[in-house]
Amino acid sequence: MAQTRAAIRYAKAVMSLANEQNSASKLNDDMKSIVNAVAESKDLSDMLQSPVIHSKVKKATLLEVFPNMNKLSVKLIDLLVENKRIDIIDVVAQKINMLFDESQGTQIAKVTTAIPLTKELEAKVLTKVKELTGNDAEVQNTVDESILGGFILRVGDIQYNASIANKLDKLKREFTLN
Known about the structure:
Elements: H1 2-20, H2 24-40, H3 42-49, H4 55-65, H5 71-82, H6 89-103, E1 106-113, H7 119-133, E2 136-143, E3 150-155, E4 158-163, H8 164-177
Parallel strand pairs: 1-2
Antiparallel strand pairs: 1-3, 3-4
Helix pairs in contact: 1-6, 2-3, 2-6, 4-5
């Protein structure tokens, strides 16, 4: 929880500066790269979280992995190293991405389904998200066969669970209560 609050503070400060310098889009692209790389590479994630590895080594590694970052992204890394908070770079990057999407009037709609979404279903999801929130959204589909069927939709703080597994669980609870 403390990491999230700190990450939000860093993200807001850096986004404010990026907006002043008209480099918010570049910053967002850099942060997307960091989020994706940390999510895809267990080694990178472990290295950033390791208390044994010195912060300067972590910084050097990040600059080596992402050589084309803009100046503001490099300054963010410097600040996190200086404040001994480089281990939360991925959380800060996620928050920056969220703030950028909000400033652009878009958001991420995370849809979990038992099978991959078709174009028709994706269009219906986007229509429903627009109706619920008033904003456009980008759909991220995750396939999870354990939900059996239906879908789980998450947009910001809103979650709508229309999965078969959820309905079966509700029935099970109903029968055990009676």
